Amino acid sequence: MAERTLPISSRWFQAAILTYLVGFCVLGLLAYLAYAQKPPIPGRVTGANRETLFTRADVMAGMNVFQRYGLMEYGTVYGHGAYLGPDFTAEYLHKTAEYLISRYQESPYASSSAVERVQAELHENTYDPVIDIVIWSDARAQAHHMMESYYRAVFASGVSRGGAQAAWITDSEQVRQLTSFFAWTAWTATANRPRRTESYTNNWPPEPLAGNFVTADAVTWSVVSIIGLLGGTGLVLFFFGRYDWLGWSDERRLVQFRPVEQVSLAPAQRAVVWFLVVASLLFLIQTLCGGLVAHYRAEPSNFFGFNISRILPYNIARTWHVQLAIFWVSASYLAAGIFMVPLIAGREPRGQARLALALLAALTAVVFGSMAGEYAGVRGWLGTQRWFWLGHQGWEYLDLGRLWQILLILGLSFWVLILARGLKRSLHGQHYGNMPWLLFYAALAIPAFYAVGLFTGPNTSFVINDFWRFWVVHLWVEDFLELFTTVVVAYMFVLLGVVRQTTAIRVIYLDIILYSIGGVIPLCWLCARALRYRNPSRSEAEAEIPARLFTEGWKRESIADFRQY
């Protein structure tokens, strides 16, 4: 299979490079806009009497509390996270609007309805960039103090409620900081951008009492995206069904298999079985965690009469469920790469098996070390300094502590070196667009794009952190892992004699182009949603229905219930 030239038209190679260049140029532009256009975090938020309600330091410290205790794996902020608990942005906004309406309804001198007055007040942007201060009315300041009391009662409660652990956050100062973070997200959700009629989040989440309604842009781009999705899918199916551009018509080949006893395996290939054992164990644990997570939704208060949230609260179970999916899939991918290399190269360098087993041992340590750290971090056992490095980073899909994250990136990079060591002779003299190089590129992309998560940090704005988290979720998970799968499966079919090499290469390039057009480019819209710049993404309007569903429970609470706090 040594091809010094590309056996298909070079236009496939050029088209793949072009689509990726265009896509990542747009993502680069969005990265610039994310930093330039992110909502401000005021130095101080005060009441009309100049009483300081909270500061920028309080907002950032509150975000760290949100991360440290794994609240994103229980509820959500801006609709991002788990959905058993409330959306804290929407909850803060809804309860504040209810309180303000009740206050203004008592005023005999109001020239407009209480709802209209509240909507106007919440959407008025009182941020002064010169003095770096936001000024709220006395009524809104009192509502904020009410919310501090409310969250203090919720998180310090000695009784487990709805999957949340009892006595979750008992430090009064941490709850005050956490409320400051929720208050800032609610402010960005309603305060209009300068010289615009929608908020920093394009009026997301929707809240009629606060005047947050889905914008026309959200509806327009939702419709355009659906038309593009269905129309683009139809065009691809039509043209590749009507015209034999991939060369399938030539594939009329009889596959013959050798008896198992005639197949010899290299040492590293034999070591792959241990990767599969570990992957199967992780899959089993993930399935059990998934069952528990599902049970929490059916019966949040107990587990067949037993209060399991005292031992394994929902946010920890869901953290493990999400992380274990990444781990067992990664272990399987490592196994596939190591197994394929000797088949491609026709030989295996000495010592590959030892390197593979060392990699497996390191991966196992990272998996169970990170799980223990996440448990300890959420329980508050790691204090205020070590939680970020050893405990729970707090971002969905990037939950593991930073130390474990770095070790995982190093392990994936070491795996790429193992593959490069085995493919060295096969890569030499090959055209850079041929299958051995495509396998190497796909493998290299796995640690490279997982490493993007290192751009998040405890001292970085939530908007920027979420922007880079979206890169990991939608590029690494949903793009490059699938690309590696495509290359490996195509290589298997070629080695088995099922398809010709030319057909396999065309299929790989077609997937690269479709992943770029259908993955990288749409990620631009998702990232635009994350940074809340100008137009909302297509999924915002679609997400209104589930957003209303998971907030329906607390929306039933009356203002009388709220006033008890």
Structure, described:
- The structure is a single chain.
- This protein is mainly α.
- It folds into three domains: 1-37 and 433-535; 41-215 and 546-563, no CATH class; 265-428.
- It is 64% helix and 4% strand.
- It is built from 18 helices and seven strands.
- The strands form three sheets. The protein has a three-stranded mixed sheet. Strands 3-4 form a two-stranded antiparallel sheet.
- The longest helix is centred in the last third of the chain and has 35 residues, at 462-496.
Question: What's the layout of helices and strands?
Answer:
Layout: H1 10-37, E1 44-46, E2 52-55, H2 56-68, E3 76-77, E4 80-81, H3 88-105, H4 114-123, E5 133-135, H5 138-155, H6 172-190, H7 216-242, H8 267-298, H9 314-345, H10 352-379, H11 387-390, E6 392-395, E7 398-400, H12 402-427, H13 435-450, H14 462-496, H15 501-531, H16 538-542, H17 544-555, H18 559-563
Helix pairs in contact: 1-15, 2-6, 3-4, 3-5, 3-6, 5-6, 8-9, 8-10, 9-10, 9-12, 9-14, 10-12, 12-13, 13-14, 14-15
Classification by helices and strands: mainly alpha
> What's the N-to-C terminus distance?
73 Å
* Relative helix content: 55-70%
Give the topology string: H per helix, E per strand: HEEHEEHHEHHHHHHHEEHHHHHHH
Q: How much is the average pLDDT?
A: 88
Radius of gyration: 27 Å
For the secondary structure, the number of strands is 7
